[in-house]
Design a protein that fits this description.
By secondary structure, the chain is of the alpha/beta class. It has helices spanning 58-74, 94-108, 115-140, 157-166, 184-189, 209-218, 238-252, and strands spanning 9-15, 21-27, 30-36, 46-52, 78-82, 146-154, 170-177, 196-201, 224-229. The protein has a nine-stranded mixed sheet with strand order 1-2-3-5-4-6-7-8-9, sandwiched between helices. Helix 4 links the parallel strand 6 (146-154) and strand 7. Helix 2 (94-108) crosses helix 3 (115-140) and helix 3 (115-140) packs across helix 4 (157-166). 40% of the residues are buried.
Length: 253
């Protein structure tokens, strides 16, 4: 793997049993994982999907991430993810940890979650994580076997919205409606123009359904679709994933 000195990745790799190449890397202090299908080569570079995830740490999220990566590889896509600020083995972030504690306290007490808690939890994360995703994208697209266009899938929906607004290399996004959204992000949502496929679990115990519907309404894309299914946060049906895969095939191939 070849990068500039600012982009150099330290890597280790293994070949999964379905032929997918998995490479763990670090970009500066940021750990990440890249998965490429066996078909990816300099002569036929694979389109890339960035795999977002909740701020729970790559080790905890790995089983779900690798399943998504292998599904995407079967369709010819490379996928990559990075550790979010303050999670996993990255340095602790006291201000965000305090906001998480305040959120847990409010939810356990059955109290409304105030805008001040949401802003303190989400906005600093978006401000720091989005430039890191862009730096990772710079490095990944320098690989000869990785090419555009690029998609973004899942994760903290506010990060996905910011990336869709500021990163012109992202051509389409699948967003998961299931995280608290600061009011300021609604204005950014109106600036989104790329095609969107939004997943919503109707009975998600940690999500404000009406707020998710309001956010979908605010998204400015001319091509956007909302796919709602009964069930809780982890009950996304298999066919919903298949629909998202077909969305990326339409827009990234």
């Amino acid at each position: 793997m070849h990068f500039t000195s600012e982009q150099r990745l330290d890597t280790s790799e293994q070949r999964l049993d379905d032929g997918v190449l998995e490479r763990e890397f670090t970009l500066g202090e940021i750990p990440g994982i890249l998965w490429t299908p066996g078909s990816a080569a300099a002569a036929a570079p694979a389109p890339l999907i960035l795999l977002g995830h909740p701020n729970l740490g790559l080790r905890r999220m790995y089983p779900r991430l690798v399943a998504r990566a292998r599904h995407a590889a079967a369709d010819g896509f490379a996928t990559a993810t990075i550790e979010l600020p303050g999670s996993g083995d990255r340095p602790r972030w006291p201000a965000v940890e305090q906001a998480r504690a305040d959120l847990r306290r409010a939810m356990e007490a059955g109290e409304p979650v105030g805008d001040d808690i949401v802003d303190a939890l989400v906005l600093p994360l978006v401000d720091k994580a989005v430039p890191e995703w862009q730096a990772a994208l710079d490095a990944l697209l320098s690989l000869p076997e990785i090419g555009g266009p690029v998609g973004y899938s899942g994760g903290v929906i506010s990060i996905g919205i910011r990336l869709a607004v500021v990163e012109p290399r992202i051509s389409a996004a699948v967003l998961f409606a299931g995280s608290l959204v600061p009011r300021a992000m609604f204005e950014e949502a109106r600036q989104v123009t790329i095609p969107l496929h939004v997943l919503l679990q109707w009975d998600d115990e940690g999500n404000d359904r009406q707020a998710a519907l309001n956010l979908f309404d605010a998204l400015g894309s001319k091509e956007k679709s909302l796919h709602a299914n009964l069930g809780g946060h982890t009950g996304v049906p298999q066919f919903a994933g298949d629909d998202a895969a077909r969305f990326f095939t339409r827009h990234l191939r």
